[in-house]
Design goal:
With 519 residues, the chain is α/β, with parallel strands linked by helices. It has a twelve-stranded mixed sheet, sandwiched between helices. It has a three-stranded mixed sheet with strand order 2-3-6, with no helix packed on it. β10, α6 and β11 form a beta-alpha-beta unit. α1 packs across α15 and α10 packs antiparallel against α16. The radius of gyration is 23 Å and the shape is globular.
Length: 519
């Protein structure tokens, strides 16, 4: 009890100390980037730069580097997010613990001005070359931004780890993931535009981050959910090779991406639906974002659909990321993992063993349900009965497959984890994204989600130290956890991340094998 209270006292003292430090700006917070001078601000010991333009792009065109400028630009505010719908913001239903836990930020949108990034660094003048962590937001390929969750702010992690943290916005949904290459001509590279944006941001980091105290040769990319899918995809993109040294995939392991035939068919059909000639003369610029979406909806009702996700186009993305693992990423160490509950956001309903078994069999059928129950009990013999109805198998199965594919290369290691920590104050469980405030060292910014208990603050120090160790060395082993071995097909090591961390070997193999035909 004393230890918990002490940890809470330390956390609150740190918050109080931070609030007592002034925020300043001026000549001491200016950086001359490759493109021109910018001014951020100093917040305590951390220099912050927001809304830095890393690229420009016309609609449905590949990104280009921004124009150079000579007049000082202010970079103290987050830039706008890419245009997107409201559905992924998840704020509307306040009757659930899910809405209570995820306090999404509502931001302005701007198609022209959304290619921006943010930087947090301990120094811009000490000539030190720090490890760099580039965080890629979630939201599938349709929503989100580098600031749509409070815990995405990079200040605390930069200070805790003496690293440089970068996050970014990029084009999404129909603006970022339509395939128009079938139109030919100027549209020959109009595919995977959102991924091309991210590569452009990484090129900006390569060319500029040393001016922010970062080491361009020591960059780790990471992302959760859709961000994990984007990281998975970057690992198979020739244009991204050499722009990062390590990769972290959280609840977004992606083995395959979309095939080009359907994607190109949709692009051609969109032009025709809008009354345009399906060739390089097509001009999409006169339509609003809403009109583009409305046309896509009409096509869907006609049975012509696109996943609006990365496409294996043969050039920008030559192959599926991990079917098998791309040779481009052979030398890139990976940290891969998922949450125990994922898309279950209310685990409050207790069940007896008989009730839980009945619920599983009702969902899966008698025979398959019996097999599932037996496999679950083998994997988690001490779990409460209700957990067999709440356990995730889909995200976990993909993560295991990705770790297996990475290990089969015989190159750099992959470390696999399962995050099982549950907040005490709400029924969210170890749900999708629960690890985010901990690994980003921002429990204080997502107090509703984590419960902000003494245990949460104590756990934050451990989890962020694991991520920082991997960012710096490619190895997540730290004091306070048992030895963490890389994943391989023989041992199948998964590190359980909870108040007590421990490794298991192939503990849920049967459960995952049952899940693979579905996922």
């Amino acid at each position: 009890m004393f230890r918990h209270l002490f940890c809470l006292f330390v956390a609150l003292s740190a918050t109080a100390a931070l609030s007592a430090q002034p925020i300043t700006a001026g000549e001491h917070t200016r950086v001359n980037t490759v493109y021109g001078p910018i001014e951020g601000y100093q917040d305590g010991q951390i220099f912050t730069f927001k809304g830095i333009k890393y690229a420009k792009a016309e609609r449905f065109m590949p990104p280009e580097f921004p124009d150079k400028f000579t007049q000082l630009r202010q970079c103290k505010l987050y830039g706008p997010q890419a245009p997107q719908g409201e559905t992924l913001r998840w704020n509307g239903n306040n009757q659930t613990d899910y809405a209570f836990g995820n306090q999404f930020v509502i931001e302005p949108m701007d198609e022209k001005e959304c290619l921006v990034l943010n930087v947090w660094t301990p120094s811009i003048s000490d000539q030190k070359r720090r490890p760099v962590f580039v965080w890629i937001h979630g939201g599938g390929y349709s929503g989100g931004s580098g600031h749509d969750l409070p815990c995405y702010e990079g200040r605390a992690l930069a200070e805790a780890g003496d690293i440089v943290v970068v996050n970014l916005n990029h084009r999404l949904n129909i603006l970022g993931y339509i395939d128009l290459t079938g139109l030919g001509g100027k549209y020959s590279r109009s595919v995977n535009l959102g991924m091309q944006d991210i590569v452009k941001a990484l090129e900006w980091v390569r060319d500029n981050i040393d001016r922010f105290g970062g080491d361009p040769d020591n960059v780790t990319i990471g992302g959760q959910s859709g961000g994990g899918g984007k990281v998975s995809t970057l690992l198979a993109m020739p244009s991204a090779q050499g722009l990062f040294k390590r990769a972290i995939v959280q609840s977004g392991s992606t083995i395959r991406q979309a095939e080009p035939e359907a994607a190109r068919k949709f692009g051609m059909a969109l032009a025709e639906e809008l009354g345009l000639e399906p060739n390089e003369a097509a001009d999409f610029s006169r339509f609003t974002y809403e009109e583009l979406n409305a046309a896509a909806g009409r096509l869907a009702r006609k049975g012509i659909r696109s996943s609006l996700s990365p496409v294996v186009d043969g050039t920008i993305l030559p192959q599926h990321p991990f079917a098998p693992a791309s040779e481009l990423s052979r030398d890139v160490p990976m940290l891969i993992g998922t949450d125990f509950n994922e898309f279950t956001f209310d685990i409050s309903h207790d069940m007896t063993e008989a009730e839980a078994v009945a619920a599983v069999k009702k969902r899966m059928g008698e025979e398959a349900g019996e097999k599932f129950v037996n496999a679950f009990r083998k994997a988690y013999p001490n779990a409460a009965p209700k957990e067999m109805t709440y356990v995730d198998t889909g995200f976990r199965a993909s993560a295991v497959r990705q770790a297996e594919a990475k290990s089969a290369q015989g190159g750099a290691p992959a470390y696999l984890y399962l995050f099982t920590w549950k907040p005490e104050s709400n029924a969210l469980g170890a749900s999708h994204g629960m690890e985010l405030p901990f690994m980003l060292h921002n429990v204080s910014l997502q107090r509703e989600m984590t419960g902000a208990s003494p245990a949460a603050y104590q756990f934050e120090k451990l989890i962020s130290s694991i991520w920082l160790a991997f960012i710096k060395t490619g190895n997540p082993n730290v004091k306070g956890i048992p030895k963490w071995e890389p994943y391989n097909a023989q041992t199948g090591v998964t590190m359980i991340l909870d108040n007590k961390c421990y490794p298991l070997q192939h503990h849920d193999k049967e459960l995952m094998e049952m899940s693979r035909p579905i996922w």
